[in-house]
Design goal:
The protein has 391 residues and is an alpha+beta fold. The protein is 30% helix and 23% strand. Strand 17 and strand 18 form a beta hairpin. GO terms for molecular function: DNA binding; endonuclease activity.
């Protein structure tokens, strides 16, 4: 480990500075050409969550502009179920032609040093940093960190040649994961396009003339007349869960899942018998084809009568019906809405095609799970120098 002698124990604030975000005005959110980033863009699992970027139309100081490759950090955390305190998000390249602002609940990492942001991002994902933040945070109901807290973090910094190598290794894994995610999004778009072609534009196989705006024998029903709401079973908090395990746990957040446990699943789902999930506050929709348990405030439901409507069709007919506008319960309003019910024979044809898409998605998700596991095992070994990297 001769090369480890070249590593230096340094203070993060000697290389970067932390800048506070824009004290934005709520009346300007939701319209305009600019984008405003909030804490919703930060995840303890992902690089960046796009739903955390909202349109914003108030002219603002360029001090609050971030560009692709910049890093922002969550300044606070409201629940241990979503451990994002001081976690990084990195602005994606797709925003290169957008004016993007970071809001008051974010810090920007102002980096003019020789430490590349690609290395810095993974440094701020390292468990050593997470443990440090846990030791300096303040607050109980709402946990917070100061700019000085972040800047005072000390770590062993390798020479540039080693930093670049570490970054390349970790980002290679992320590139493979993102390629799979693009394929998954393509399959989801194909499924959505098929639904619209058949059930919105009515250009389904053997399509016929419309009667009163609908094909013959199609009906309209309220959601509550078509679905059976299932019991929650035991609900889990993030502190009870593991990064890996037998049973996946889903909550209403923007993340795909909350974590895993090794107990008996609360619900049993499959490609032949899927279950739909609805986030009561967030209006998140999720189609489950594997056994699972639940976090808080997410409602499982399925078709009340499979001879009238099946779950694959039901998911696509309902998942865009309602969007969250404020933090309140939405099930009552959602279940009172109306959907079109096509003939069951056409639903079954749709069902068969979507099931194959879901199987392909499952395969790519499993590949991403393996890649993520390998990357996360490498991360602490690379950052600590236990795994030697030749420049």
């Amino acid at each position: 480990m001769e090369r480890k002698k070249e590593w230096q124990n340094v203070r993060l604030g000697d290389y970067i500075s932390i800048k506070s975000g824009l004290a934005y005005k709520g009346c300007h959110i939701g319209k305009g050409e600019s984008l405003l980033l909030g804490m919703g863009c930060v995840s303890f699992k992902e690089k960046f969550i796009e739903s955390g970027a909202r349109p914003y139309n108030d002219p603002s100081d360029d001090r609050f502009v971030v560009k692709p490759g910049d890093i922002v950090l969550a300044t606070r955390q409201q629940s241990n179920n979503l451990p994002i305190l001081a976690m990084p998000a990195i602005i994606p390249f797709k925003y290169k032609n957008k004016r993007v602002l970071f809001g008051t609940n974010l810090y920007k990492v102002e980096n003019k040093s020789e430490i590349d942001n690609r290395f810095l991002f993974w440094l701020l994902k390292h468990q050593h940093y997470v443990n440090y933040i846990a030791g300096v945070k303040s607050g109980t109901a709402v946990q917070m960190v100061t700019k000085k807290n972040v800047e005072d973090y000390k770590f062993n910094c390798p020479p540039k040649s080693i930093r670049d190598k570490i970054s390349n290794i970790l980002w290679t894994y992320d590139t493979l994961i993102e390629n799979n995610n693009r394929r998954i999004r393509l399959l989801e778009q194909m499924a959505e396009n098929l639904y619209k072609e058949w059930f919105v534009r009515f250009r389904f196989p053997g399509h016929e003339k419309l009667e009163n705006g609908l094909p013959k024998e199609w009906t309209i029903k309220r959601v509550k007349d078509c679905v059976e709401r299932l019991p929650f079973g035991r609900t889990y908090k993030v502190k009870e869960l593991y990064k890996e395990g037998k049973v996946i746990v889903v909550d209403q957040s923007t993340s795909d899942y909350l974590g895993y446990h090794n107990d008996v699943p609360a619900h049993y789902a499959s490609f032949e018998s899927p279950i739909i999930l609805f986030g009561d506050h967030s209006c998140k929709f999720y189609l489950m084809t594997r056994d699972f348990s639940l976090g808080e405030n997410i409602i499982p439901f399925k078709s009340k009568d499979k001879n009238q409507v099946n779950e694959y069709y039901l998911f696509f007919a309902t998942h865009n019906l309602i969007k969250t506008e404020e933090y309140k319960r939405h099930w009552g309003r959602f279940s009172s809405m109306k959907i079109v019910i096509p003939k069951i024979e056409l639903q079954q044809k749709f069902n068969k095609l979507i099931r194959e898409y879901e199987k392909m998605k499952r395969y790519m998700y499993s590949q991403n799970t393996l890649l993520t596991r390998q990357r996360d095992l490498l991360l602490p070994r690379l950052m600590s120098g236990k795994l030697e990297v030749k420049p």
